[in-house]
Structure formats: structure tokens, C-alpha cells
Design brief:
eight-stranded mixed beta sheet; globular
Length: 170
């Protein structure tokens, strides 16, 4: 796969040349609050790119790197599905780029790779992300209580959402 084209974004495999821009986005307070990470965001992004179980795609808008979307697959035949996660530069939030990125990747996972079910798991209090995913067709499955530890050390709920291939809003 070379690149996937959405209505307003382009997704292409992330590479070493993308690391500085992706690390800068990951270091913004808004993204860091959700994605966390250590003191070295460059090392965090490199680690993401080196994870053989995760496929990282750089999100471009008007030829500018604005974030990353990644996916993984559960290949056990009786449980086969794919999961998605993403982060975008806060300067482009609220402009539909996240919805376009998720929809573009979801189409690829369903149409090209044959996944019948996709999942995503935003923080339960991340209303903007939840609305974005709902626009693509994801539906809430349930709240995963005390799902992840926040930077403050306390546990926070996550929302498991899924999408069946027939529910994808194209």
C-alpha cells in the first residue's frame, strides 16, 4: 500500500522522515494528555514505527503532516478484526480531518483487507473523538471501567466502540 486518499486527507505509511513532525504533534499538551509518553517523544514515535504488530500511517492535509493513524489486526480466524487509533495536531481539530482519516482507513480495512469488524477505544470523556467515530458508523459497545491510567496516576474509563462492515458510513 502506497497511500490512501480520503476527501481531505492522505494516509501513507509512516517512515523515519516523519518522526520529527509526528513527535512535535505528540508533544502538544492536548495529544500528550491522551497518548501520554515519556520525556522523549522522538523515541516514543520511533518505538511506534518499530512495532511490527502495528501499522502506522502518517496523516497529511494539504501536504502537511498533521498526525498519525495506526491499526492492528487480530488474525485468529474465530476472532478476526482490526483496531484503530489516531492522533491529530490540535491546530486541525474540529475540521473533519479525523473523521476523514478514520473513514479512509476503515474503507481500506473493510474493502481491501476483508475485515468484517473494526474496534476503537477512546477515553470515555473524549466527546470529540466519540462524535468523530460515530460519524463513520462506530457504535458504543460499553464502558471499560478504570481502563487506563492517566498522567495523574488515577484510573479512567474507556469506551469500546465497534463498527461492522455493513455499518460503515461511506
Amino acid at each position: 500500500m502506497n497511500e490512501l486518499r480520503g476527501s481531505v486527507v492522505v494516509l501513507r505509511p509512516s517512515g523515519p522522515g516523519d518522526v520529527p513532525a509526528l513527535a512535535a504533534v505528540r508533544a502538544t499538551p492536548e495529544v500528550r494528555a491522551r497518548w501520554r509518553g515519556g520525556d522523549d517523544m522522538t523515541a516514543e514515535v520511533i518505538s511506534d514505527l518499530e512495532d511490527s504488530a502495528t501499522h502506522c500511517l502518517t496523516v497529511l492535509h494539504q501536504d502537511r503532516i498533521v498526525g498519525m493513524i495506526q491499526w492492528y489486526a487480530e488474525e485468529e480466524p474465530d476472532y478476526r478484526h482490526a483496531g484503530i487509533d489516531l492522533f491529530l495536531d490540535p491546530s486541525v481539530h474540529g475540521r473533519g480531518l479525523g473523521t476523514d482519516a478514520v473513514r479512509t482507513l476503515a474503507r481500506h480495512l473493510v474493502d481491501d483487507l476483508g475485515h468484517h469488524r473494526l474496534i476503537i477505544d477512546p477515553a470515555a470523556d473524549n466527546g470529540a473523538a466519540i462524535r468523530c467515530y460515530e460519524k463513520v458508523g462506530f457504535r458504543p459497545v460499553g464502558v471499560m471501567r478504570q481502563y487506563e491510567r492517566g498522567e495523574d496516576g488515577t484510573w479512567h474509563d474507556g469506551l469500546l466502540m465497534d463498527l461492522l462492515a455493513s455499518e460503515l458510513v461511506r
